[in-house]
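To close the section, here is one more complete example, presented without commentary so you can practise reading it yourself. The ligand is 3-isopropylmalic acid.
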Amino acid sequence: ASSIDLAVIPGDGIGPEVIAEALKVLEKAVAAEGVELKQTHYKLGAEHWLATGETLPDAVLADLRTRDAILFGAVGAAPGDTRIPSGIIEREMLLKLRFSLDHYVNLRPSKLYRTVGSPLANPGAIDFIVVREGTEGPYVGNGGTLRAGTPHEVATEVSLNTAHGVERVVRDAFRRASARERKHLTLVHKHNVLVFAGHLWKRTVEAVATEFPEVTHDYLHVDAATIFMVTDPSRFDVIVTDNLFGDILTDLAAAVTGGIGLAASGNINMDRTAPSMFEPVHGSAPDIAGQGKADPTAAILSAALLLDHLGYAAAARKIEAAVVADVEKRDGGARSTSAVGDAIAARL
Ligand code: NAD
Ligand code: IPM
Ligand code: MN
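Output:
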């Protein structure tokens, strides 16, 4: 197609700040390809909830479904903000989008750029992707509480894992591994304790592996995976894991590869039955919001993932190259959010 019908959800805190820079870069990258970028901006998030009481109205969800892709900033209030119930926006808006639009592949690449400092003394060459399941696991809100507020309260949070859900994300991870140089997949779970879900994941990996004889695979319990993420992160190529383990591992992965300001992600519906959504891994960062301090690189790299998904690989590679060139010039000096966006856009 020669046009992109893009939905933009800037959100809260630093969300609008980093999205402005991602759009600056995206607009320039697609214009160079002769592609028209049509944008529809949606007001959603914690601030919007405070003003209207709305999280994600059905009509807005229906409208979003008609777009080619969604560029998302970040949502959420400051942890201590008592004006808004904790997590309501995260669950009723962000997770509702991921579930309703069937974003079963939560793709989170991690790469250590040559000049970016890692907190690790010996990081090695880090270049892996996490394929995090995006629609199931402990995230589905399958639980409840009995005798709430009493000393006898019982709270449950039951992880949901379906054969269909596990198989489709595992197959996607094998496909991605097969397309990479090292062709190696690591399943991360905890089947020594979480026996039912753990064994479903383990059996599924073993079954799907027979379709991909060129891909080697191994297994780590999630606790051990955090050790290796710090002591030997270059061992990883493709990690496939459950929704919650993937959430935790990808913040750690971002930290060891130079910070959350660089970590991009895609919430992808590989069957293309609904638009996919691309967003930085980070949140609304209330501690630095409004100060022009946020690093927009994660949002800019998320826009590159968006272009890849829509089939504009050449434009995506150009954005990545511009980011790498910018990152290689960084000397630790402070630059404003818009200065980083301008510099990356200028390199396109
Ligand atoms: P956070 O990711 O917002 O911030 C964690 C730390 O990283 C903060 O010190 C912040 O200043 C820093 N940071 C984050 N992004 C940065 C950037 N681009 N440049 C420089 N520094 C950056 O996590 P949190 O504080 O746990 O969450 C804040 C709010 O965001 C909460 O309401 C949470 O639920 C929400 N949240 C939303 C998303 C999302 O929208 N996808 C993701 C994570 C958290
Ligand atoms: C992320 C965030 C979300 C998640 C929250 C805000 C629901 O932490 O995108 O990593 O847990 O998936
Ligand atoms: Mn997270």
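Once you have examined the tokens, check your reading against these statements. The domain at 1-104+263-348 is CATH 3.40.718.10 (Isopropylmalate Dehydrogenase). The pocket of 3-isopropylmalic acid (ligand 2) is lined by residues 90, 94-95, 247, 281, 283 (CB under 6 Å).
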